[in-house]
Each structure stands twice: as structure tokens, then as C-alpha cells.
Amino acid sequence: MSLLGVFSQLLALITALVLAPLLTGWINQWRARLQNKSAPGLLQPYRMLHKLFNKESVMAEHASQLYRTAPYVIFSCMLLASAIIPTISTDLPLSPAADAIALVGLFALARVFISLAAMDVGTAFGSLGARREMLVGFLAEPALLMVLFCASMITRSTSLTAIVETLAHRELAIYPSMLLAGVAFTMVSLAENARVPVDNPDTHLELTMIHEALILEYSARHLALLEWAASLKLFAYSCIGLALFFPWGVAEANSPLALLLALPVLALKLAVGGVVLAVIETLSAKMRIFRVPEFLGTAFLIAVIGLLVNVLLGVA
């Protein structure tokens, strides 16, 4: 384990913690602008987190220890997921754990905890949100795995660092399977991050909300951790997309200069991706909850077709 590798890992953790709320604020700002609304401040997510961390926490009367522990577990899962994705460097001490299946497992673990916590207090909204969240996860996780396997078939590795290193140093080529995987990944990312057209992160209408129904009973620091974890999840999915489809600009091992240049490159790619996400949400309409299985089922089929294209073309 090199000293530069440890520094790269710490820098990746700090970058995720700092940039995740900023990315959320950037997307919210562009959504408001595209809808001709007054845009919130870019630093509004930081102000909200500061306010929530300084409030007194109020817990439900019958809440168990699971309910109190869940926000910390969910936040840790999202932070670890962000840490094992090669965002600014491939020289990471956690890179042996940066496996596609392990990454999806972290998302699944966080989903299980937030669903159990929502049902723990026995409210109708919590149980409704938990059922919907598990439905989305049941359909989205296989599609995400198929997307990751499309890239792993090309690079002959399920390690995210190996995928980035291989794709970034190959000759520029158009892989039909990766085009299909990109479409599927975009659909999964919208669903997993509670974005339009699957969910609306700003809604409090009980007939349509998914993510908000899970956290209605939380307050103060617990709510702050869950909101921060949601931003980290959006950041992690954005970085997965950049690692799979735009891997250029990530620093190699033992390259301090490239490490310094990787930060502004990452910020630029996230900024462009945030604008694209805001445009997609603005042009889309919120679909009915009963259409979500069709939406995610289509994403899974597109990803499977990408795998079959790899097999038919003999890409390796």
C-alpha cells in the first residue's frame, strides 16, 4: 500500500462528501432554470444539512434500535460505495473490493435498512414507501448488474478499477453493447435516485412518493444523514456512469500530477452530467407507479441485449 494510494483514497472520500451535496444543488438549480422558476442557491443543500444537524432529534415513540441505527448504516454504505468507485484515481487501497457485485450489494444493503426502518414505526406511509422501494430495487439491481457485466465482458474483469484502466487506454472505438448499456444505465439511475419520471424528489403527495415516504418520520441529524446519503448515492451513480462510459481523466497509479488534474476534470464531467439530468427531468412527465415495472423491465432487456451483442460480436 503506497502513501500516494492512501492519499488518493482519502481524497476520494473527501471529494465525495463535499461534491455530493453540491451536485444536488447544481441539478436543482438547473431544473428550476429550465422550468422558468426562481432557482435556489447552489449551496442550499449545505445550509439544509447545517440546519438539520443543529436541531434536536425527535424519535417515534415505538422506534426500535434498528430505526435509530439505520441512518448511520445507510450513510456508511453510500460513502463506501463512493469510495470504491475510481473517481479521481485508480490507485486505491479499496480497489480489491471495487467489484461490480460488491457495489450492487452495498446499494442493496442500504435499501434493506431504509425499508426496515420505514416499517419499524408502523405508519401507513412508511410501509407503503418500503413496498415501493423494494419493488424498484428488485427490478433495478438486476438491470444494473447487466450494465456492469457489459463492461466486464469487454475488459475481462468485474473490478471497476480494471474496467476504467482498460477502457481509458484502449483505442477510441464505438461498442454497440456500451451504447445499449448507457441507455439502460440512464433508466436505472433515474429510478434508483428517485428522479422524474419514476419519482419526484420534491413531492410530498402520498399517492406518488417513494423515497420521501421512507423518511417522513425522521428529523434532525438522522434526516440530515439520510439526505446526505441520497446525495452520495446520486454522486456514486454519476461516477459509475463516468467510469463506464467516460473513463478518461482518471489518474493512474504513481502519478501525482495526474491526480491534481483529475479533480477539475471530474468536476467538469459532473457539471455536464448534472445539466443533462436536469434536461431529462424537465422533458419527462411523472409516470404512474404501475408503469415503473415496465420501465425497469425495459432497462433490463436493453442491458441483456447489450450482453448478447457482446457475445455475437465476440468482443473481448
3D architecture notes:
By secondary structure, the chain is an all-alpha fold. It is 70% helix and 0% strand. The protein contains eleven helices and no strands. Helix 3 runs antiparallel to helix 4 (100-120), helix 4 packs antiparallel against helix 5 and helix 7 runs antiparallel to helix 11 (292-313). The radius of gyration is 19 Å and the shape is globular.
Write the layout of secondary structure elements.
Blueprint: H1 3-34, H2 44-53, H3 65-84, H4 100-120, H5 124-155, H6 160-169, H7 176-192, H8 211-214, H9 220-245, H10 256-283, H11 292-313
Helix pairs in contact: 1-3, 1-9, 1-10, 2-9, 3-4, 3-9, 4-5, 5-6, 5-7, 5-11, 7-9, 7-11
The shape, in one word, is globular
SS elements, strand count? 0
Strand percent estimate: under 5%
List the secondary-structure elements in sequence, H or E. HHHHHHHHHHH
**Assembly context of the chains:** single chain
Low-confidence stretches: none
User: What is the CA-based Rg, rounded?
Assistant: 19 Å
Largest β sheet strand count, sense and barrel closure: none
Q: Kindly state the mean pLDDT as a whole number? A: 89
Please report the distance between the alpha carbons of the first and last residues: 30 Å
Structural class, by secondary structure, is: mainly alpha
Number of helices: 11
Helix content: over 70%
Labels describing this entry:
mainly alpha, 316 residues, 11 helices
Describe the structure in brief.
This protein is mainly alpha-helical.
